[in-house]
Every structure is written in structure tokens, then in C-alpha cells.
Design goal:
Layout (H helix, E strand, L loop, with lengths): L3 H18 L4 H14 L7 H12 L1 H13 L5 H22 L4 H21 L12 H18 L4 H10 L4 H27 L9 E2 L2 E2 H21 L5 H27 L1
Antiparallel strand pairs: 1-2
Length: about 270
């Protein structure tokens, strides 16, 4: 695996930005993994599927650490997390199976559009105003299904959807972030299992793959990200985070565009 160093660098960047800006690594990992997998000669028709699956598996450890940390600070609304979690598991499983049926270019377009939306939110610093209370349990479960489905399609922990939803429902920001972190763990685990099932027996998979998950990349990214995430957290109080978010938003735009070009080029 001649690009082992690239996966280590990617893991360092993902962990750092996750800790610094409170943003999951999917926005960085999926485009970069798509390019790395193409360089390694992986099957073009599975480039995006493998990038999504590997990204999802790589955030399990950081999602677990984040959820534990927020729980220790009593910032998790567990009844809300449980209601969302039921829908999250169902939505993530279904969407990961559907993703296997999509063409790589279709998945790349979905990813690019969603990440552009996230980047635009960051640039404009858009935050929904609290204007209602938490809905009923069935509505929360349905919302969780939608969050899980979109998270599986773009390999994110769900924070970009869960936090605004809870904030809109008058949940304090600290608890919204903590509850979102708790929901992020089942998204990562279920998404990984879903992509393993969806890719089981797929042709053209490289060695050391389990379904669509490429294990060497998961191990190397996870090994480094768990160490750089705390560094990002510490620097969050010293660096101009508002400015960095705008720079990161521009990076997301660039990575999403690069990913589209990579997939189009591989299909040509």
C-alpha cells in the first residue's frame, strides 16, 4: 500500500478540523479518498461507494469519543437521542443499500450538492432561530430516518442536520451539539454495517476490503485522527474560528468540485 502516508496525513487533517470546528470528516475524507482510490487503481464504478463506506467506518472511533465526552459534561438529551436514533438506524441502513444501486457519478453529484449547501451555511453563518418545541416521538423518529438516510449518502455524522433541527426546537446549543454527537455514533456504526452488506460479493474489490470498506485506510486514518482531534479542541479557544470556518467552507467547495472532476474523469 504505497500511499499509506497519504492516509495518515488525511487522518491528521480530519481529526484536527473535527476538533477545531466541530465538523465531521466526511466533507474532507470522501473527496480525498476518491482521488486516492483512483490513484491506487480501484474499480472506477466503485470509487465513490468505497470512499463513502471507508469514511463512515473511519469516524466510528471519533464519534464514540465525542459522544462519551459530551455525556460526561451532561450535555446529551438521551430520550431525544433515543427517539432520533431509532429512525437514524433505519434510514442509514436503507440509504446505504440504495447507494449501492446508484452510479458513482450520481453519488458524487449528491455529495457535491449537499456539501455545497453545508459550505454555504458556514459562509453565511446561518443558524435557525428557535421557534417551536420538540415534536412528538413519531415525528422525531421520522426526522431521524431522514438524517440517517442523508448521512449515509454523504458519509457524515449527521451534525450538520441534527444540530439545526434541535436548535430550531429550542434546545440549547450545548445540548443540541451533545445530543447530535450521541446520534452520530449509531449513524457511523449502522452506515458502516450497511455498506459492508451492500458491497459484499461486489466484483473488483481490492484486497483487505470488507464489503465497500477498505480496511487499511480505516486503520491508518483512525489511528491518527484520535490524537489530532484533542489538539483541534484545544486550539479552538486560541485561533479565529469564525475566519477558519469561512476558509474551511471554501475548501469544501473546492473538494466537492474536485471530486466531481475525478469521477467524471474516471468514467471517461
Amino acid at each position: 500500500m504505497e500511499l499509506w502516508w497519504a492516509f495518515l496525513v488525511l487522518g491528521a487533517a480530519v481529526g484536527f478540523f473535527a476538533g477545531l470546528l466541530g465538523i465531521g470528516g466526511g466533507g474532507i475524507m470522501v473527496p480525498v479518498l476518491t482521488s486516492l482510490f483512483m490513484t491506487l487503481g480501484f474499480a472506477p464504478e466503485h470509487l465513490v461507494h468505497q470512499a463513502l463506506a471507508t469514511s463512515m467506518a473511519s469516524i466510528i472511533l471519533t464519534a464514540a469519543a465525542s459522544a462519551r465526552s459530551h455525556h460526561q459534561h451532561q450535555a446529551v438529551l438521551w430520550p431525544v437521542a433515543a427517539k432520533l436514533g431509532v429512525g437514524v438506524v433505519l434510514g442509514t441502513l436503507v440509504a446505504s443499500q440504495l447507494a449501492a444501486q446508484f452510479d458513482a457519478l450520481v453519488l458524487a453529484i449528491i455529495f457535491a450538492v449537499f456539501m455545497s449547501y453545508v459550505a454555504l451555511q458556514m459562509l453565511l453563518n446561518f443558524k435557525p432561530k428557535p421557534s417551536r418545541q420538540l415534536p412528538s416521538s413519531p415525528t422525531l423518529t421520522a426526522a431521524g430516518a431522514g438524517i440517517g438516510a442523508m448521512s449515509a449518502l454523504v458519509a457524515i455524522g449527521g451534525g450538520t442536520l441534527t444540530v439545526p433541527l434541535l436548535t430550531w426546537c429550542n434546545v440549547k446549543m450545548q445540548q443540541a451539539i451533545g445530543t447530535s454527537a450521541a446520534v452520530g455514533l449509531p449513524i457511523a456504526i449502522t452506515g458502516t454495517v450497511g455498506y459492508i452488506i451492500a458491497g459484499w460479493g461486489a466484483s473488483g474489490m481490492p484486497p483487505y476490503s470488507v464489503g465497500f470498506v477498505y480496511l487499511p485506510a480505516v486503520v491508518l486514518i483512525s489511528l491518527v485522527s484520535v490524537f489530532t482531534a484533542p489538539l483541534g479542541v484545544r486550539l479552538a479557544h486560541r485561533l479565529p474560528v469564525a475566519v477558519l470556518k469561512k476558509v474551511f467552507a471554501l475548501l469544501l467547495f473546492g473538494l466537492a468540485g474536485k471530486m466531481l472532476l475525478t469521477v467524471v474523469g474516471s468514467a471517461a
